[in-house]
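Page 42, continued from yesterday. The earlier attempt failed because a stray header line got pasted into the input along with the sequence. Redoing it now with the clean sequence only.
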Amino acid sequence: MASTPVINLRKGHAVLHNNEVCLVTEHELKTPPRMASYVQMSVRSVATGKVSNLRLTSNDSLEGVMLERDPYEYSYKDSGGYHFLHPETYEDVPVHEELISDIKNYLIEGEQYTLMIADGAVVSIELPQTMVMEVTESSEGVKGDSANNVYKPATLQTGLVVQVPLFINQGERIKVNTADNSYLGRA
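This time it went through. Structure tokens are written below.
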């Protein structure tokens, strides 16, 4: 493990803080006038889930932790958590609800996701930038409402609700931006 200047850290990096492996969840360099610049960042402990807000000078360093990024296929959910399967070794990796809460509306059985692993524990799951999902529920568009860009809510196969144009109907497959849950077009 190498010491990494905090100014070089980004969201998603893993570091040691208070002898715990933590994931950087927020990172911002602040440069107030007539003052020394500093880094405002939040880190979440992998073991406890506790979030710490740090204010460090731009010259400070934290101990970096190597992250493995491996593709895994989402299999199923049970009382043990959400299960991911390595496509080559068929290793089953259960992931707890706390790590999944932000992205569970994007988990589709059989789809591949990138698991970030530090010290043998899953610390985060990376979503692809876009995903193709099926519309399972959508109201009918009202004829004559097409003069402006009018949107309606549509429920997708995972329960995610996205605003879509009036011409999108139930059963269609659409592309969704995973960063902001926005409709990108038909698939």
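Notes: The domain at 3-64 is CATH 2.30.30.30 (SH3 type barrels.).
Reminder to self: strip header lines before submitting.
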